[in-house]
Design brief:
With 347 residues, this protein is α/β, with parallel strands linked by helices. It has nine helices and twelve strands.
């Protein structure tokens, strides 16, 4: 994606007590699932030409969606908005079997860009439902990922929005209950929800492996460390990005005096910087690195030119593209078949 044109000189370098600096969290930005999904749309446009339709936002980032629209992608809410026989990409958040069937009924050529970690949760839901467990799905009702997972076993799933919901949960058989979760939640809040569920249902079973994705956990761990030393934390990410919103909450919980989410550097307000010596910066898992660089440029204008990276983990995971897109137009294996930007997102 092209570099975002920045608005330089808007923020002023006003003296503050102490030495101005930026603590830059790492890991940050694009995860492997987002990388895979965005490249899937780009390659679908290369393969099939414009338009290629995408159900919902491919990832929850306004900049990424806008850039793909400019390349010829058309985003729709439902498959019945797509002309029969057209190509449609399912977003990284996944879809329910009902959506898959509706696409097939319209003769659509579907490309599944669901993050493999979300697919894992779907398979867990199917397996536990088959064994007649009641599934307590910890997540935000209405989020695409939760709708997709719940749609795998609608008669067995109850959505638990927060720890406070636990007191009102009713189950058919307290001896056959299991919890699963949305992959982009706050780790701490999810574990608190599980703790309360286990108090009510002592035989509650755990999923076979952690459902909260590695990238969500890694970004939360990094911002926890940054927040201890930062008076202000700025998170780059969109309002509908669950993991970006959680990063703001985590920063506040772990010591930052103030924390804000922005889509673009131009949204940063001068008054946020009043009296602030140390600014923490991170970005959600669906945010391209150029947006972070634009923020760093803007902060440099305000005197925060010293940037120290706070690294808490290394990430090198990449996911193969959907099988339809692993070869180029000449039939050769595409260089991006295993992704292509995830490794450089931390640079």
């Amino acid at each position: 994606m092209p570099r975002v044109p920045g608005v330089r000189g808007r923020l002023k370098d006003i003296p503050v007590p102490g030495h101005k600096r930026v603590l830059l969290a790492a890991p940050r930005g694009y995860c492997a699932g987002v990388d895979r999904a965005v490249i899937a749309v780009e390659k679908a446009l290369e393969h099939y030409g414009s338009p290629v339709y995408v159900r919902k936002q491919i990832v929850h980032n306004i900049h990424v969606v806008t850039q793909l629209e400019q390349q010829g992608a058309i985003f729709v809410d439902q498959v019945d908005e797509v002309p029969e026989g057209a190509h449609i990409v399912f977003s990284a958040h996944g879809v329910s079997p009902a959506v898959v069937n509706a696409a097939a009924d319209r003769g659509l050529h579907a490309i599944d860009a669901t993050c493999p970690l979300v697919t894992k949760v779907h398979r867990e839901a199917v397996r536990f439902a088959r064994d007649d467990f009641e599934i307590l799905l910890i997540g935000h009702e209405g989020h695409e990922e939760v709708e997709g997972t719940a749609g795998e076993a609608p008669d067995h799933v109850t959505v638990v929005n927060s720890p406070d919901d636990v007191a009102n949960i009713e189950v058919r058989d307290p001896d056959k209950v299991v919890w699963l979760s949305q992959t982009t939640l706050s780790v701490d809040e999810t574990m608190e929800t599980v703790r309360r569920l286990r108090e009510r249902f002592p035989k509650l079973q755990d999923p076979p492996s952690d459902d909260i994705c590695y990238a969500t956990q890694n970004r939360q761990v990094a911002i926890k460390k940054v927040a201890q030393d930062a008076e202000l934390v700025i998170v780059v990410g969109s309002a509908n990005s669950s993991n970006s919103v959680r990063l703001v909450e985590v920063a506040l919980e772990y010591g930052a005096k103030a924390a804000y989410r922005v889509d673009y550097a131009s949204e940063v307000k001068q008054e946020w910087l009043d009296g602030v010596a140390t600014v923490g910066v991170t970005s959600g898992a669906s945010v391209p690195e150029e947006l972070v660089q634009e923020l760093l440029d803007a902060l440099a204008d305000a005197g925060y030119g010293e940037v120290a990276e706070v690294k808490t983990a290394e990430e090198d995971l990449m996911f193969s593209l959907p099988k339809e897109l692993r070869r180029d137009l000449a039939g050769n294996r595409d260089a991006r078949a295993l992704g292509g930007r995830a490794r450089t997102a931390q640079a």
